[in-house]
Amino acid sequence: MRNMQDVPRRSSKSADTPLPAFRIEETPPVHHFGCDFTGPVRYKKNSGEIGKGYILLFTCAVTRAVHQELTTDLSTVEVLEALKKFLNRLRSVRTITSDNGLSFQRASEELKLIHENVKNGEIRRRISDLMIDWKFIVPMARNFGAFYERQIQTIKRPFRKILASAVPHFRDLEIILSGIEAMVSSRPMTTIASGADEIEALSPADHLSGYRGRTIIPEHISEPSKASDADKIVFSRRWKYQQRILSSYWKRYHDEYLQYLKTAHKQTPVAARPLKIDEVCLLKGESYKRAFWPLCKVIALPDNTSPENARSCTIRTAKGQVFHRPIHKLYPLEAQD
């Protein structure tokens, strides 16, 4: 390790990170999800006060279908309540990937405790069928959650621009978010041939429902002839308000999504080279200058993982410190190639 200070730094390139198995292996479309919070978003309480909420976004790792739950804070209780509603809709979910936020870690522990403390055999069996394997990404590796982080950015930008200074009621905001969820999950991902000369777009929603269910609730536009009909007019006004926001969102999302598609595949692919045990690398730090990045040596890979499939590793620095880091933070030295 003493001779590590003399090796070239400036020409080294970041190590290539392979995709996780659940991203590339054939699995049912609603088995693997990622989740993260976005926000805050303002909403109006019944008292007229302004509250601050957050959106917990679930993204399917295979189809990129999304599901959104509005929460009042970032607590473990809110995570569990949102997860309960999510699993009531999609009972085939098997794994959830997230960052190492405290509320996610505690929610995972709560689920384990519930499973361990249930004594009744029948109930335990049913809970086992719904047991979630909660996976946490490696610290300092936000790109490991890129499949759900990308959806957060895609949804959040037009949403904030459309709402601007408007502050909907909590229930209105929930309905607006469910409409946005339907729009985003209906975006075209690829094409399928439905006939000799016909080509249809395949969307994430098609994998979830098996058909294109776009039932529209009709607007009630008649004037009330008696007092008992007044509630219908109130419903109509709130419905129009929600639809106005959703229509504006769809136009902006449509424009930004098309622009994203133009630039999504412009990167030139490069041949990947896996890291090896005892390989000396630069450990990317906070400084933009590579001269200040410490040198390290790869000392171990995750158990039962080949170098080609490893996404993280254990390293030791020249000072003897041992860390677990994602391999995209490591820059193999060019002299070793």
TrEMBL record:
The gene is LOC100899735. It holds the Pfam family DUF5641. PROSITE patterns: INTEGRASE (PS50994). GO terms for molecular function: nucleic acid binding. InterPro entries: DUF5641 (IPR040676), Integrase_cat-core (IPR001584), RNaseH-like_sf (IPR012337), RNaseH_sf (IPR036397). This is Uncharacterized protein LOC100899735. Residues 24-212 form the Integrase catalytic domain. One of its GO terms (biological process) is DNA integration. Residues 1-21 are annotated as: Disordered. It comes from Galendromus occidentalis.
